[in-house]
Amino acid sequence: MIRKYLPIIALALVLGAIAPLASGALADKANTPTLPQPAVDLQPQDVVRIVITALANNDKPYPDAGIATTFNFASPGNKVNTGPLDKFTRMVKGEPYGLMVNHVGSEFSEVVYDGTNAYQMVQLTAADGRSVVYAFRLSKQVEGEFRDMWMTDAVWPVAEDQVPQQAF
Known about the structure:
This protein is α+β, with helices and mostly antiparallel strands. It has one domain: Roll (Nuclear Transport Factor 2, Chain: A), CATH 3.10.450. Helices cover about 40% and strands about 20% of the residues. It contains five helices and five strands. Strands 1, 2, 3, 4 and 5 form a five-stranded antiparallel sheet that branches. Helix 2 (about 45-55) packs antiparallel against helix 3. The longest helix has 30 residues, at about 1-30.
């Protein structure tokens, strides 16, 4: 008689062993921190600070989360040229942006506005001690899902002799 129920008992034991694992996996997925996203109330300097902070802590809360955050704040036009995320990640880890990843210090210039564009420079101290300045160009989106949100259109390194003395 027990032999008749062995397949059912075995299935119950297997499901009993798998269920905690599956619920744990779902709980882990549900507890994954949400990365920062563009928002109407963020100003250009907020966006740049979020991106710079994320890149300084690139592997928190998971590997390349900082780069993913940076991609979240890339404008739709920027993403056309730099995306998808895996391509963007390779780009950011390469030259000339690799020094941004896990940098150890940052200093921000004032924001300069030009209509729906904003510019800000950031002086970073890379993990290897080198100092480099990057310029950010942001634009306030005028349509679509990101309407009225500031997003990054471009980032480029600034030659040392091109950085205004009063910038930092």
